[in-house]
Task: inverse folding
């Protein structure tokens, strides 16, 4: 099989290695696509050439080619998605209890189970109610996905916030009622008009992964409202805004470390994909071959106006 591995800063190579053999509780899949995730950007940017190569790609979709002894519910030919690793390859092994079938009629590149499951799980703990005023700060891949997922909860108002015009335009097409640049959000959404701050948002979903975006999100949530931090905050100071404390805001950590909860959310999310209530079609804007992983990360890092999500297709 072939697999891409990071061997230095911003440098990958494709190598030939023996085909993996699934354990009794695993399946071997022929990779049909693997999403390029911002959480892998750090290892790609700063890998030490003296260290062992790093193999990335955890947003997997593939077709089962073999199943271990205890994974008999999966048969060769099944198209599955789930929680995996080392997916920038032609073959990969996945735990049998961490994969689900791809809904019928859905293209493999539009059936990435892991990212939408993470977002759906975060929403399940955020409790968006019908009629709520909801803000989404950051309209990249995660934010635009959240816009689609939130719509089914019938918010009374759904507002997107992002500095890039192209992203705001996409958000409006995907269901936002209004969209603003961070410094152009009307004062009515930042200033309490009454004792409970009725003009602010009941729920704010932060999907920027940077400290200024977190600050903007905190300024928009009303007293006794909810802020869900979905962004991947592994750089910057990400300091707690004490104004949230004085507003008695409930802060939800959007990350989930539990596989059982993530798989339950994935089942729900893939149902939405199958029902065409959530679609990757407007989100997957770029595709790259296995020998183009560096180009995929470079394109994601640049985040140009035409970019939302890249998928590596071996």
Result:
């Amino acid at each position: 099989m072939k697999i891409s591995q990071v061997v230095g800063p911003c440098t990958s190579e494709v190598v030939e290695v023996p085909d993996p053999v699934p354990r009794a509780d695993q399946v071997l899949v022929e990779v049909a696509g693997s999403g390029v995730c911002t959480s892998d950007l750090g290892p790609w940017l700063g890998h030490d050439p003296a260290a062992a190569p790093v193999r990335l790609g955890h947003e997997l979709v593939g077709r089962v080619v073999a199943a271990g002894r205890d994974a008999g519910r999966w048969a060769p030919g099944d198209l599955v998605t789930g929680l995996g690793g080392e997916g920038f390859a032609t073959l990969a092994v996945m735990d049998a209890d961490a994969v689900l079938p791809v809904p019928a009629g859905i293209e493999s590149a539009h059936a990435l189970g892991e990212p939408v499951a993470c977002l759906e799980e975060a929403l399940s703990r955020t409790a968006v109610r019908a009629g709520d005023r909801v803000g989404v700060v950051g309209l990249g891949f995660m934010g635009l996905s959240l816009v689609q997922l939130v719509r089914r909860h019938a918010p009374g108002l759904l507002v997107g916030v992002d500095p890039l015009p192209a992203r705001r335009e996409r958000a409006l097409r995907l269901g936002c009622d209004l969209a603003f640049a961070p410094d152009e959000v009307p004062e009515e959404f930042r200033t309490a008009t009454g004792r409970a701050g009725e003009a602010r948002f009941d729920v704010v979903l932060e999907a920027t992964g940077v400290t200024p975006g977190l600050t903007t999100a905190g300024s928009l949530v009303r007293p006794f409202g909810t802020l869900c931090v979905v962004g991947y905050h592994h750089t910057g100071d990400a300091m707690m805004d004490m104004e949230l404390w004085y507003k008695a805001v409930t802060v939800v950590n959007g990350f989930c470390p539990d596989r059982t909860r993530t798989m339950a959310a994935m089942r729900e999310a893939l149902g939405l994909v199958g029902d065409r209530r959530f679609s990757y079609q407007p989100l997957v804007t770029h595709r790259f071959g296995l020998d183009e992983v560096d180009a995929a990360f470079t394109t994601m890092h640049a985040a140009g106006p035409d970019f939302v999500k890249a998928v590596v297709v071996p």
Observations:
- Residues 259-274 form the longest helix (16 residues).
- Helices lie at 41-46, 113-124, 141-151, 165-174, 211-220, 242-246, 259-274, 293-302.
- The mean pLDDT is 94.
- The radius of gyration is 20 Å.
